[in-house]
Amino acid sequence: MSDESGSPTFIIADFSDDDAANENLPEIEFRSPEDEAWYGVDVWELCDSLVVTFNGFSFEYDEVYSPDDFKNSDELKEFEERFRACSVQMQDTECATLAQGTKVCATCPSVAGDVKFYDAIVVNVSREKHGVDEEGNEVCGCDYKLYWNQGPFVNNVTSAKVGDICLVQEDKRMKPKVVTFLKEARRQLLGEAPQGKETEWQKILKKVTSAIRDHNLDPSVPENQG
């Protein structure tokens, strides 16, 4: 997805009281259904729907998901797996942590020049002696062969350097808003009764959510920011 409008990014705040709970949680990334690339995102609630906001892009690229979007538990599980803690840029001094079989998130070669991140598996590492730059920092010259799980080179192997690779984090904690949404979607799949009576404000928000979805205000996925 590409934002060519040049319009500013708007962040619509959710005035909830879970800021303290979020303070030590990792930032999250999301694998978009549009192109299967990973994007840094934020999330907020609109009634019982989940809005995914792509970092660095204006609000018209937001994606809105409703708890009733999922036909079965497999679809819900697949959606849950699209969220994870943000991958971290690999440093030159960390090349020893990569070995055959390591899962990474890396920039995929693109004829169009787009910089997008996809999951891949390290299948080979050609170790090279490290050098130093003008400031005395270690510089890795190793070559990594990556087998791509997604993207334009899916099921193929290409070469990558340390600057192309991000390390996938093991932190499984998730933003409370995502957890709450998944619980509500699971509740609806199981046909369980909602807890508490729906308020007038919730009814209004539900109508707003429906209007947003009907007018398709999430047209396409923005270009990856890394």
UniProtKB/TrEMBL annotation:
Q: Name one Pfam family in it.
A: SAWADEE
Domain SAWADEE spans what residues? 27-166
Q: List the molecular function annotations (GO) for this entry.
A: chromatin binding
Superkingdom = Eukaryota
Q: What is this protein called?
A: SAWADEE domain-containing protein
Origin organism is Brassica campestris (Field mustard)
